[in-house]
Design a protein that fits this description.
The protein is an alpha+beta fold. The chain has helices at about 10-20, 20-30, 85-95, and strands at about 5, 35-40, 50-55, 60-70, 75-80. It has a five-stranded mixed sheet.
């Protein structure tokens, strides 16, 4: 698997707003069972496109991970508990 990079600004947001560690994000990448999906919302448009998935950490905490895939690494944009219903959407998209 490719390594991931997290900017200092995103690291601060992950820690202070979402209480998510780099290790938990790594665990979600390793534990995911479904594919990633493109974030098609216009206000979240990036080039290359933002992708997302929902997966549990090793302790069972479910997180939505948002990232951009580059040829040699993943750039993490965010990770948080999916209180917006995206966990249910992810389950529907994967079925």
């Amino acid at each position: 698997m490719k390594p991931f990079r997290i900017s200092p600004k995103v690291t601060e947001k992950l820690r202070e707003k979402h209480d998510v560690s780099h290790e938990e994000i790594w665990q979600c990448f390793l534990n995911r069972e479904g594919p990633s999906f493109r974030d098609s919302r216009e206000k979240h448009a990036t080039n290359p496109p933002s992708l997302w998935f929902v997966a549990p950490t090793d302790k069972g905490r479910v997180l939505k991970v948002v990232y951009i895939e580059y040829p040699t690494y993943y750039a993490i944009k965010s990770a948080f508990e999916p209180k917006d219903g995206s966990d249910k959407l992810y389950a529907e998209l994967c079925s």
